[in-house]
Amino acid sequence: MTIDREVGGCPVMHLDFTEPADVGSYWALADELREQSPAIFDTVAQGFWVFTRHEQVREIYAQPGLFSSDSFTPWDPEPAYRFIPTQINPPEHVKYRQILNPWFSPGAVSRIEPQAREICRRLVADLAPRGACDFVGDFALRYPTEVFLAMMAMPTSDADRFLKWVEDFFDGLSGDPAAQQGMVEARTGIRQSWAGALD
């Protein structure tokens, strides 16, 4: 990371956060940016601000009229998708949260606990004979996906499709034009799956 210049006392950098970096290096980068300044302007895409201090971020979340949730990637300021409720601004955000909260309340989570534990045991039992695994790829991504499907009363066997869709969708958020088609296809697949489940 190099700071190119200072404008009005605010550091300016050109840092593409979508570029892969060494595992664990993001923590060091966050520390470095936090020590550099409470606010830094990044010139990637159309440009965006990076706020590094807890107090500022908390204040930003409390001002949805000034800091919209419509987009969270600088290279796609007007996305065709909306994650609900995270990309919905108040007061509509609260309406969605009221619908979703009961599904993820402590009581709802407690009810799914036996099934969640069974899913965990099964995945670990499947991995144990190997003697080693890629924890993220083999467990950490699949486990919450299967638990979520179970909470929604959908077959946990659908996890294979959902994992691919989620991976393809989030690859598209990188801003890489080559990944955009996969993102569109993933979004279509997810929508069709939910529509079928609702039917």
Give an account of the 3D structure.
- There is one protein chain.
- The protein has 199 residues and is α+β, with helices and mostly antiparallel strands.
- Helix content is 50%, strand content 9%.
- It has helices spanning 25-36, 54-61, 92-100, 106-127, 135-140, 142-151, 159-172, 180-198, and strands at residues 3-7, 10-13, 39-42, 48-51.
- The protein has a four-stranded mixed sheet with strand order 1-2-3-4, covered by helices on one side.
- Helix 4 crosses helix 6 (142-151), helix 6 crosses helix 7 and helix 7 (159-172) runs antiparallel to helix 8.
- The model has no long low-confidence stretch (mean pLDDT 88).
Provide key terms for this protein:
about 200 residues, alpha+beta, about 50% helix
Return Rg in Å. 20 Å
The largest pleated sheet is described as: 4 strands, mixed
The tally of helices reads 8
The count of β-strands is 4
Structural class determined from secondary elements: alpha+beta
Please report the distance between the alpha carbons of the first and last residues.
50 Å
Unreliable stretches covering 5 or more consecutive residues: none
Strand content: 5-15%
* Order of neighbouring strands in the sheet with most strands: 1-2-3-4
